[in-house]
Design brief:
alpha+beta; 15 helices; 21 strands; globular
Length: 508
């Protein structure tokens, strides 16, 4: 089974024009005898009609529609995207130890910050099936002082079907009620209240609280914009003394989504294939905008990291402003300071009061380069196979590498009360947290409970090895871990980033 951190589908840096930039796979694209194009999904038709009406759309707009559109988005249809029967598998689904160690990390950080006895909040963005939160809560229940200090759990989830899966796992038969900011029920762990919100801006930002925020494979699914450095054709300016040639300077041009031109011949059952590939042509393609777009004029100017690459023709960069907004929200909740844009609910006209002192932490686990800017990483996954992200809208999971350098910069810019540690490789982080020791504890228990000395332990060890494997495209190397904690001039690195913890204590 495949994880979402697969090698991206490579995009050529030459001949961008109107040529498709991705290889497609088999699809059900068909054309009728009247040359009316029939689309693979209703959402594909909607997107195509929008492009025909208003022109090309950004990759960010395309991703947002494909993943969260109420009219057939990937996460809004009710199907199960996770596990063997879905499209990909995530770390919490591989081994319970993964979630347990995140729970242990929260315990250690809570202890290091003085063991506050009240006002602790847990926030998870993109909770999937709820497996990670379930494993964390089960672990934290063994640490009674921390468990009793938790006031509220917030789950940020836009998908109604996933919210229901999370509710069943975490709350069982407990009733659910609709409230102003979302939905609320009661956890099966210590009867803690759980509130679901569609956006983190709706999660109350109380400066007296101590928030612990978790984001596992969340940022990779947030929309990106992609830009390429180009040198425009030379031009002249007419002056009173005659034409004056101008020296073109590099510009960022945005890669936008357009419809793939229909084939010159009409078919009835199969899609045409790209001349560069034996696989069917996707319904959409990436094209280079002929003129600057508002996004290309603004987003690449926000960081000197992008300016350095502008001077290299054909250089490609990917930027996710929504990711920057989310991580700034995290940092402000932890460290306080002036609120960054869009950190309070859209309906609110007043920002939250100042935070008396920094507290809490955020842990981000995702895939991407540790410091460089992602390029050419847009990918699609369907049924555990890499496919074109521009085919079968609503039926393909779309993601891109996370720019950890940009996340760190956005967090530090949002609040003077935080510092950032990492990213470090997931394999190294899990081993520092004691994943192998915890795995051996489970192996002993599995052999005793099942009366089998080989199969359960072998399965446990194989799962743990998969999480920490660092060779090739192993999850232990591809996935990274980044922490945001209260500013302390780096004197106290958090657990897993230089600290230490005994995982055996309190983990049942």
């Amino acid at each position: 089974m495949i994880s979402r951190a697969c090698t991206g589908l490579l995009r050529s840096s030459r001949g961008v024009g109107n040529r498709s930039l991705y290889s497609g796979i088999s699809s059900n694209l068909r054309y009728s005898s009247s040359s009316t194009r029939l689309w693979s999904t209703p959402l594909a038709k909607n997107i195509a009609e929008a492009i025909a009406t208003t022109g090309p759309i950004s990759i960010a707009s395309y991703m947002r529609q494909c993943l969260t559109s109420p009219d057939g988005g990937y996460y809004t249809q009710g199907r199960d995207q996770f596990g063997q029967k879905g499209d990909f598998i995530t770390s919490p689904e591989i081994s319970q130890v993964f979630g347990e160690l995140l729970g242990v990390w929260m315990v250690a950080e809570w202890m290091a910050q003085g063991k506050t006895s009240r006002g602790v909040e847990m926030i998870e963005v993109g909770p999937g099936r709820g497996t990670l939160m379930d494993d964390m809560l089960r672990t934290i229940a063994n640490f009674k002082p921390l468990a009793s200090s938790i006031d509220q759990i917030y789950l940020v989830e836009a998908s109604p079907s996933l919210r229901e899966k999370q509710r069943k796992l975490l709350c069982g038969d407990a009733p659910v009620e609709q409230i102003e900011i979302g939905f609320r029920s009661t956890s099966k762990y210590s009867s803690l209240p759980i509130t679901w919100c569609e956006d983190i801006r709706f999660v109350p930002n109380d400066p007296t609280k101590t928030p612990f925020i978790f984001a596992h494979e969340f940022f990779d699914a947030l929309p990106i914009h992609a830009f390429q450095s180009v040198i425009p054709s030379p031009s002249t300016i007419t002056t009173p003394t005659g034409p004056l040639p101008t020296k073109p300077t590099p510009q960022w041009r945005e890669l936008v989504v357009t419809r793939t031109p229909p084939p010159s011949t009409i078919t009835t059952t199969t899609a045409t294939t790209s001349p560069l590939s034996s696989t069917p042509t996707p319904e959409f393609q990436l094209s280079l905008s002929k003129t600057p777009t508002p996004s290309s004029l603004l987003l690449p100017t926000l960081s000197p990291r992008y300016a350095k690459l502008l001077q290299h023709p054909s250089a490609l960069i990917e930027i996710s402003p929504e990711s920057h907004s989310y991580v700034a929200n995290f940092a402000h909740r932890i460290g306080g300071g002036p609120p960054p844009p869009s950190t309070h609910p859209p309906s609110s006209s007043t920002p939250p009061p100042a935070k008396p002192h920094p507290s809490g932490a955020a842990l981000i686990l995702d895939y991407g380069p540790p410091s460089t800017i992602p390029t050419s990483t847009l990918r699609g996954i369907r049924a555990h196979r890499l496919v074109s992200p521009l085919s079968h809208p609503g039926q393909v999971d779309i993601s891109a590498d996370v720019d950890f350098g940009a996340l760190a910069a956005a967090a530090l810019a949002a609040s003077p009360g935080v510092e950032v540690h990492g990213p470090v490789e997931q394999g190294a982080w899990l081993e520092r947290m004691g994943i192998r020791e915890r795995g051996e504890m489970l192996c002993k228990g599995a052999a005793t409970k099942n009366g089998n000395e080989e199969d359960p332990p072998r399965r446990i060890r194989r799962a743990i090895e998969r999480l920490v494997e660092r060779g090739g495209g192993g999850m232990g190397r591809i996935y990274k871990v980044l922490a945001i904690v209260p500013e302390n001039s780096g004197r106290r690195p958090p657990v897993g980033f230089g600290g230490d913890v005994a995982v055996e204590r309190g983990v049942g």
